[in-house]
């Protein structure tokens, strides 16, 4: 019954699929294991030697240590072929009726298919099924005899990858009927529980994922600027819009550039030339800016989005180019400074 349950467990593991944590397909691996061994379902006859023939029954000490080395080839993400050498430990036995004791020890070469089922990227369960070519030997009363054969092998285990190349495993293995009692006087199933270390060759180390570059800070769109000449918009020294000025503002309001930004903040700035006092020029420029703003509002622009400023003779366009002029020549030269600027923000 126990053998049947083990076999069913192996077959169930072999039929699973989905995620896998085994070595990369097409690569080799190797490792070593060490742990506890146990002989069970022991049977014996008394045909050891003249001394042991006196015994009609045997007592056994079935627990010992075992281990081995192994290597394998990963066929695909879930299936590998694995082989190796196992030392199955030894079993002490004692016969009754005064018969001398002895021991049985065994070892073998194994070959199996290993099927894995991934629980995560690093951890999987696996099952192995195959065969072992064994050599079993009994020693009693100074005599030894050995037997060889091939027996079925089953194993289940779990494997955890510490890195892409290095993993650890914990495994239970069972080999049926090691030894021929008609040849060496004893036979037993050999089981073991071992912990092992596995090195995987040629694994693809994942490239480190670079942190995404921070999104660039949004660049504010430059404001749209429209220059209106005051000499066209107003009479000299006046803040009342002329018919030409109203027409110019109407044309500006219906232009595609302004229509696409009517909901944006709009700043209307009035400027004057440098003739006259600074306070007078500032007040005149403010009134002219207000006149342009009111005309835009009348055409449909929201009053909440419009601000006005008067900046007088600041930010001169002509600079010192008119310094040597007087009278009407100076007035005409300073004409570019007399202006109203409409700025519409980019947001």
From TrEMBL:
One of its GO terms (biological process) is monoatomic ion transport. GO terms for cellular component: cell outer membrane; pore complex. Residues 221-347 form the OmpA-like domain. Residues 1-21 form the signal peptide. It is found in: Cell outer membrane. Keywords: Cell outer membrane, Disulfide bond, Ion transport, Membrane, Porin, Signal, Transmembrane, Transmembrane beta strand, Transport. The keyword Cell cycle does not apply. It is a multi-pass membrane protein. PANTHER family: LIPOPROTEIN YIAD-RELATED, STATOR ELEMENT OF FLAGELLAR MOTOR COMPLEX. This is Outer membrane protein A.
């Amino acid at each position: 019954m126990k053998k049947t349950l083990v076999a069913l467990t192996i077959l169930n593991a072999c039929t699973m699929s989905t995620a896998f944590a085994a070595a990369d397909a097409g690569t080799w691996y190797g490792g070593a294991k060490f742990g506890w061994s146990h002989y069970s379902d022991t049977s014996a006859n008394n045909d050891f030697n003249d001394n042991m023939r006196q015994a009609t029954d045997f007592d056994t000490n079935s627990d010992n240590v075992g281990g081995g080395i192994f290597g394998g080839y990963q066929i695909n993400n879930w299936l590998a072929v694995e082989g190796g050498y196992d030392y199955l430990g030894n079993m002490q036995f004692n016969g009754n009726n005064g018969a001398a004791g002895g021991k049985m020890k065994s070892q073998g070469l194994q070959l199996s298919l290993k099927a894995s089922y991934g629980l995560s990227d690093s951890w999987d369960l696996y099952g192995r099924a195959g065969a072992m070519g064994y050599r079993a030997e009994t020693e009693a009363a100074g005599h030894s005899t050995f037997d060889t054969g091939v027996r079925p092998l089953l194993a289940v285990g779990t494997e955890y990858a510490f890195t892409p190349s290095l993993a650890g495993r914990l495994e239970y293995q069972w080999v049926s009927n090691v030894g021929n009692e008609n040849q060496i006087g004893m036979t037993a199933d050999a089981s073991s529980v071992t912990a092992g270390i596995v090195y995987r060759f040629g694994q693809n180390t994942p490239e480190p994922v670079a942190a995404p570059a921070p999104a660039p800070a949004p660049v504010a769109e430059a404001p749209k600027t429209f220059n209106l000449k005051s000499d066209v918009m107003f009479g000299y020294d006046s803040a009342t819009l002329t018919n030409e000025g109203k027409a110019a503002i109407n044309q500006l309001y219906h232009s595609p550039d302004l229509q696409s930004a009517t909901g944006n903040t709009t700043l209307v700035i009035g400027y004057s030339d440098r003739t006259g006092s600074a306070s007078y020029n500032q007040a005149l420029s403010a009134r002219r800016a207000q006149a342009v703003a009111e005309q835009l509002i009348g055409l449909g622009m929201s009053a909440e989005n419009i601000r006005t400023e008067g900046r007088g003779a600041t930010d001169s366009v002509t600079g010192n180019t008119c310094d040597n002029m007087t009278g009407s020549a100076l007035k005409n030269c300073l004409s570019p400074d007399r202006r109203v600027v409409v700025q519409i923000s980019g947001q």
